[in-house]
Amino acid sequence: MEAISSAGNKSGNPGRWVALGLLAAIDLILLYGVTMMYASGEMAFALLVLLIITTGTWVFISHKGYSYRYVYPALLGVSVFIVFPLLYTVNVAFTNYSSSNLLPLERVKAIHMAKTYRTPGESYNFKAWQQGENYQLLFISNKDTDKHLISAPFGELTEPTEVTARLSSELPDGKELAFRDTIRIRHILKLLTIMLPDGGSLSMTSLREFGPQARIYDEGSNDILIDSRNGDILTPDMTTGYYVDNTGEHISPGFTVFNGWDNFSRVISDPGIQGPFLQIFTWTLTFSALSVLFTLIIGLLMACLVQWEPLKGNGVYRLLLILPYAVPAFISILIFRGLFNQNFGEINMLLNMLFGIQPEWFSNGFLAKTMVLIVNTWLGYPYMMILCIGLLKSIPDDLYEASAIDGATPVQNLFKITIPLIIKPLIPLLIASFAFNFNNLVLIALLTDGAPNIIGATTPAGATDLLVSYTFRIAFGQYGQDYGLASAIATFIFLMVGVIAWLNLKATRRFTE
Questions:
Q1: The whole model's pTM is what?
Q2: Backbone angle region of 60, left / alpha / beta, with phi > 0 → left and psi within -120 to 50 → alpha
Q3: Distance CA 53, CA 193 (A)
Q4: Angle, alpha carbons 439-452-288 (nearest 5°)
Q5: Is residue 184 within 8 Å of 140, Cβ to Cβ?
Q6: Per-range mean pLDDT, top range of 31-35, 120-124, 330-334
Q7: What is the distance between the terminal CA atoms of the chain, rounded to a whole angstrom?
Q8: What phi and psi values does residue 6 have, to the nearest 5 degrees?
Q9: DSSP string, 297-335
């Protein structure tokens, strides 16, 4: 690519023309993709790819864009995988996009327009013939007659098409298709409307039969639909995203509309969302902070223990203590789910045998949170232990020898020498661990799935849900998919995490100074 904008701008430089040709070929392929995205209604993705094409071409052709050439891949990755998803999520937050309002208005109108009803008249069995790339249909009447109906030839269809039929005593030209081959072209047959000589029409009613049908709705002005049977009118309601009949009843499916700040106001004002949201937000912060604290304490103590020279077999202990980190997390979580089972788990059996109690780990909110912290501490302490082992090796042994001469205890060494010397390099890693636990979806999804549920919540919300699992359940849970509300909550999460990250960086800078 350097040949494009370097000093070798000579018309006879073959490398420059090869690079230009390669860039042009890439642009043409991407432009074809943009056209396909635009044709399918994916405007956001089409604009994104078009922006990538224009900026990439400018960077690799223009002299002014030369300095950006080496950082362009990184900027492209940030734009595609961070900025664009964020902007797309915020955009969805201002819509009613959900499982019941999934399609655009044009598609919903087409679905209603495709609805038909059976009208009086004779039905016909049919057979299909193929001649080259064209097909013909033979309609067999139930009446006693020596003539039958033959359709005009038709080929591959992508939209509804009217085809005439004529009476004939001869068979169509070509090869009669077997029933299995007729099934393969049913997507074409469904688009056919057969116009009969007497002015009637036939449509496909089953895999073996064409019958008289009529469309229920006719299109009016301003996307209005008129019922051809009784004259009732369906009007699109641009506030709710549904077609509404004369009685005010919503007709499914719904369509996507912009609803402004409705999703955000629901999060703030709806008690069934606001209360669970604040409760889950508080628990998310608490869970993340306690997970970092507990894993740090245990990891540091284990690191000090395996670094203790009088301890024999340090390597064996180090290997055993790292095992929870080596085992895939989803396996460990599912094992703990079985161990904490309220009726058959080994933990409750042991507690019942020793103390006569069987805690309701999955039914009681406090116990469920305690269980989550126990499991996450088990999964996370090996990481902290590995970090601390590396940092402990960087502390000079002379400091501990001097403290031993002064009569310092191991506890004094820990708080006066070890922690002050390792805390500064640990802070960025602790912040990263906090961010990881803040979005620890796998743990909650596999261990409790958010249970126990929060009473009075109007959305799927549980006492052990983190913000990320709460948002995931709203967007993709089994109780309905409200993508607009989930995107609004995700926007709030982004703002909160941004503020927390800013405060952490500020506190870290102040602590370092």
A1: 0.78
A2: alpha
A3: 44
A4: 25
A5: no
A6: 330-334
A7: 45
A8: -80, -175
A9: HHHHHHHHHHT-TTSS-HHHHHHHHHHHHHS-HHHHHHH
